[in-house]
Design brief:
alpha/beta; single chain; 34% helix; Rossmann fold; binds nicotinamide-adenine-dinucleotide
Length: 442
């Protein structure tokens, strides 16, 4: 029979709350209690996944600024009214209510809650990017070191079956010499998130290499297994600018004569989202705060930010960027992020001394120079977008986080903030290289 334990604090005395390090190797005799801060798209998705395992996880409290989002979340997880808060500060002021907290507020609101909850003894699952500036990202890494809190960053790509199998196959190509990696963001995805939506302005959130591609730079470091020494970068905002607006276009798509011709038409995207599932429906939900009705979509098209013409927004983040990376030992990588693609999985080629490994987010093709044969592995999971759960990455991230906390097994967490801060440093360095036209040495 498996030995179970009641929760202990860091001094080993019985406590109503557990920490990951307080019961090493011994499962808790109750579910891990999790508070959710920011119950929007990501917070709700993670809580929904954790709720699949009621014997291991319980959603115990929520803080969210939006009344409808908060009420829906509290009802879904049967959270009593005295554990439902309008702001993370209110939850923090209440004293410790759970074992762990998921911080899924927007990027600029990561540092303050992460610091406060770590100081209160919570372990934390923190959405990426860690924070919008290098100083704040480093500060969160320091908070983890100072308080002993485990802070896991939501680098979901580290947790996919595809990545696990890719890492297992990589030794077969010998030593990695160079890598080519593409993040095809997708035209309507880019228009939704980075032209009309939350991540359109550098001063409100951050530059797109951080908000979109900190995943990619982190993932390259994870699979290559070496430190970056130097970086350069080029790119910018090529297309979604007022000077590219067709003469007949109006400020809003709803009354635009081009709405059935324009590839970025909001009326087409969000009305498709009412009929279709998948990513388009996810975006329509974001646009209407979850109300999937014709009236809500029409109102949001007429009044909200997601109804604007893509050439008449206040966006400034880059829509295409390339980054060159030199790793220890002379290994090189080139990375491209671009808006101008279908909604596809990332593509990567690893060039090794004995072969080549090519991946499309689902299939892996291993070519052996000696036999001149290709072996193909189908990892069977597709759908790398957030709406599709990042090809199993969301579910496995939450499973690992819950299991780590419940079983006292910190090694299950593959994305500790300490590692993630290193990846973020590379992203900030690449952006400095782009802005200054220089090669930046790390
Ligand atoms: N891991 C990934 O691949 C991935 C994908 C998309 C987004 N993200 C990141 O996840 C985070 C959340 O993004 P989202 O799409 O869920 O955004 P969202 O806008 O849907 O959710 C954020 C929520 O925070 C709430 N909030 C705002 N201020 C608050 C406060 N003071 N206290 C409590 N709640 C507050 C808002 O009401 C909102 O419901 C961001 O940092 C984003 O960059 C990560």
């Amino acid at each position: 029979m498996t030995r179970m334990t009641t929760a202990m604090d860091s001094r080993g005395t019985a406590s109503p709350h557990a920490n990951l390090h307080s019961h090493p190797g011994t499962p808790l005799d109750r579910p891990v209690r999790i508070a959710v801060v920011g119950a929007g798209a990501r917070g709700a998705a993670y809580a929904g996944l954790a709720a699949q395992w009621p014997e291991k996880a319980e959603i115990a409290a929520v803080a969210d600024a939006r009344p409808t989002v908060r009420a829906r979340f509290a009802a879904r997880h049967s959270i009593p009214a005295d554990r439902v808060f309008t702001d993370w500060r209110e939850l923090a002021a209440h004293g410790r209510l759970a074992d762990a907290v998921i911080v899924a507020t927007l990027d600029a609101d990561h540092l303050a809650p992460a610091r406060t909850f770590a100081e209160q003894g919570y372990d934390i699952l923190l959405e990426k990017p860690i924070a919008p500036t290098e100083a704040e990202s480093t500060a969160i890494g320091e908070v983890a070191a100072r308080t002993g809190a485990v802070i896991a960053v939501c680098h979901v790509m580290r947790y996919t079956r595809y990545t696990e199998q890719l890492r297992a196959l990589l030794p077969q190509i010998g030593d990695i010499v160079s890598v080519e990696h593409l993040e095809p963001v997708g035209a309507y995805h880019f228009a939704h998130s980075f032209v009309r939506g939350n991540w359109r302005r550098t001063d409100e959130t951050a530059f797109s290499l951080l908000t979109k591609s900190c995943h990619d730079i982190d993932w390259l470091g994870h699979v290559i297994g070496r430190r970056v020494l130097r970086t350069s970068s080029f790119g910018g905002l090529a297309h979604f600018r007022p000077e590219n607006r067709p003469a007949e276009a109006t400020d809003r798509c709803l009354d635009c004569p081009l709405q059935n011709l324009c590839p970025y038409s909001a009326t087409t995207l969000y009305r498709d989202g009412l009929r279709e599932g998948g990513t388009k429906q996810y975006f329509t939900r974001v646009m209407t705060a979850g109300d999937l009705t014709e009236e809500a979509v029409t109102r949001a098209l007429a009044e909200g930010p997601y109804g604007r013409c893509v050439y008449a927004c206040d966006n400034d983040v880059a829509d295409h960027q390339v980054v060159s990376l030199e790793y220890e030992g002379g290994v090189t990588a080139s990375f491209t992020m671009t808006a101008f693609t279908p909604l596809e999985n990332r593509h990567t080629k690893f060039f090794g001394t004995r072969g080549q490994l090519t991946g499309d987010g689902r299939h892996l093709h291993l070519y052996d120079f000696r036999t001149e044969r290709t072996t193909t592995v189908d990892t069977s999971l597709d759908g790398s977008s957030a709406a599709e759960g990042h090809a199993g990455g969301d579910e496995n991230l939450i499973r690992c986080f819950v299991d780590a906390l419940h079983q006292g097994r910190p090694e299950l967490i593959r994305s500790r903030v300490e590692d993630s801060v290193e990846g973020h440093r590379v992203v900030f360095a690449a952006e400095r290289a782009r802005l200054t036209g220089t090669v930046v040495t790390l």
